[in-house]
Amino acid sequence: MTRRRDALLALVSAAIGVLLFLGVAEVVLRFLPVATGMRTVAVTQEQPILRFTPNRDFLFSRGWDMEMANRGRINNAGFVNGQEYRKDGDRPMLLAVIGDSYIEAAMVPYAETMQARLAQVLQGKLRVYSFAASGAPLSQYLVWARHAAKDWGAEALVVNVVGNDFDESLVDHKTGPGLWLYRRGTDGALALELQPYRPGVLRELVYRSAFARYLLFNLQAGTYLFDPNIFGRLVGRAAASDAPRFAGNTAAAADPKRVADSLAAIDAFFRDLPGMAGLPPERILFTVDGFRYPRAARDSAGTYFDQMRRAFIARAAALGYEAIDLDPLFFARQGKAFDYPRDLHWNPEGHAVAAEAVLQSKTLARIRP
Fold first, then answer.
1. CB 290 within 8 A of CB 326
2. Which of 109, 255, 304, 346 is the most exposed place for a label (fewest CB within 10 A)?
3. Which CATH number describes the domain made up of 85-199+245-367?
4. Rounded distance, CA 10 to CA 3, Å?
5. From the centroid of its chain, how far is CA 327?
6. Per-domain residue ranges for the chain?
7. What pLDDT score was predicted for residue 230?
8. Per-residue pLDDT tens over the stretch 261-280
9. Measured between alpha carbons, how far is 58 from 64 in angstroms, rounded to an integer?
10. Who contacts 9 (Cβ-Cβ below 8 Å, separation ≥6)?
């Protein structure tokens, strides 16, 4: 009887200790810049546009120490942008900027982003709206291009292309609730397919708890939970050879299937772009990210992204589109950092380079009043 009582007391004491820790952690973290999350709305066949809960502020931070803390705004259209979007035919022509987390730019003050810089310079001549979300590939850009043109009246596009946009356009290489991805049919052709997303009750509970958000958004606990090498990562003994080499913010390995699938995605993207955007090639500009530093470019020669970016630029040019390789502009500003110490997304200097590329482009010269 005494043993059972002692065991019960020990269990109760442990439970009280855990609850006390969680309570203290919750209170403390509410005063710290814990990431709030972006709160994606439901994406279905009836509501097919991936976007976030409109008209709310968010706080971005990354890592255990909550670095890169930045506050931003999700506007009335459900995108990260300091402007409210308007459907107004009396206003200047609309230029839509489309991309993934580079254009979403949750870690960058809005005024220092590529799209805000363009909006400032072109004020009174062109409107500049952005349509972007983290994880989006080329296939998703098509849907936003149609949304920007059809629903907001965009008459020109800037599409930013980065390292993981190619293979991750196919369901064989990516799962992304809310995204439109390519699936290969029985005839071998690639066709867009929606990966539906419906927010659940658990998501709302997570958003209400600072501790839960810290675990999931800052520590990326969900990613590590399904990592087969989690034990090695936790004890710090993961073999260096087990870690994939990255180049251009994506895995460097250029295995034949990955390359073939990516080239097929590029072909499908350019096949579908005219019908989705409803715009001629001279109204669409591509900015293509690179390796940013001469030494990194030399070391990355022949890698997956090196092959894909060359193939994409060549394909675009052959079809009459302007595609700007950003690397020469990055190289011209050597001595500066274009990304963050622990994150390869563009910092404000990187966004300045991309904005400069657009402002110097032939495409903008054709449409700019």
1. yes
2. 255
3. 3.40.50.1110
4. 10
5. 20
6. 1-31, 85-199+245-367
7. 45
8. 999 999 999 999 999 999 99
9. 18
10. none
